[in-house]
């Protein structure tokens, strides 16, 4: 097994883009230049290991000595307002980092690990495109469905996916399709990740009694036109969100699930009856994030037999060639720059709503959606690979293929259902 010393440069300043006398400035500045979303500071036997998450992938960057690591952690505590004296419980803080015309909000979490401390930094900044939905990665036909659903001004729109799949960005972009200056819009989030203009954003504070459920109940008394729910995670908030949609409000909410049919399962698992789901739901967006190829170094390659088989499986036209990642100085030798979404956008029309109200199983709903032309995330990923947006290797990494066999196993095997129930209860 490769050790941290072998994976990471052994001196502060190696394996990084710029070095400053101030360790914290060096740490943050290099993360910003590499477009990292997260910085992990892990204590190891040799000192402090620094890792960046860039476009969803972890990259080891450097290994600091124990003295250098302690200095960095102490600076981080001071800058983020965390108690300088080491605590025996996890602590959280926040700092603001100016970068030209941008401003980064950095959330800091420190936790005791054995006899030392590790830390995590989450870097947040408002996108330069200001939530422009055309830059998220929707295909034109899917963008039309989304625009129509938001334009209806009533019903429940669910955005679903794994943690870190861009659900909040999509939710904010959908909200920005409306003229928020002339709309009474409230959100309940845990936490508020970005500041959205003209939206009254409420942050969950359970220590003071402000739960997701209490926040939603309060919002309903505030005459809202549009309600944003950061994440539906309990039975009370699920029911309130669904009934708010039935009462003529537009509700945009996120929930953890793997696909569109799974979002219906998740809502029902939280106690929302099928007839309420079928009557309130207007649109489901299942999504994940996939890396974009670097435009400066990407190169074409021939298709292999496995590539042709995947395109044939979805009855898609096989491209003459595919693009592959190479790596250059502009992308820091990663071969990719930035990410885009892969989506399954399911419109809930009368036929689908009837299926839902009847208590149809996951597979039956999925088959109904496919017959009505709803593409899976895997198919959307293949289309992006054919267009040269991403590589087939990246599509295989992110998307799930062989849906039929796996779906049959999940919906008929009692043990699998028990495992799914336990997983959902932990969300």
Describe the protein's topology.
Layout: H1 4-7, E1 12-15, H2 23-33, E2 36-44, E3 47-54, E4 57-64, H3 66-80, E5 91-99, E6 102-113, E7 116-124, H4 140-151, E8 155-160, H5 167-175, E9 185-189, E10 200-203, H6 212-220, E11 226-229, H7 235-246, E12 250-255, H8 260-269, H9 274-280, E13 281-293, E14 299-301, H10 305-313, E15 322-324, E16 336-347, H11 350-357, H12 362-371, H13 377-386, H14 392-398, H15 403-412, H16 414-426
Parallel strand pairs: 8-12, 8-13, 9-10, 9-11, 11-12
Antiparallel strand pairs: 2-3, 2-7, 3-4, 5-6, 6-7, 13-16, 14-15
Helix pairs in contact: 6-7, 7-9, 8-12, 9-11, 13-14
Write up this protein:
37% of the residues lie in helices and 27% in strands. It is built from 16 helices and 16 strands. The chain has a 7-stranded mixed sheet, with helices on both faces. Strands 4-3-2-7-6-5 form a 6-stranded antiparallel sheet. A hairpin with a 2-residue loop joins strand 2 and strand 3 (47-54). Mean pLDDT is 88; it is low at 1-14 and 403-427.
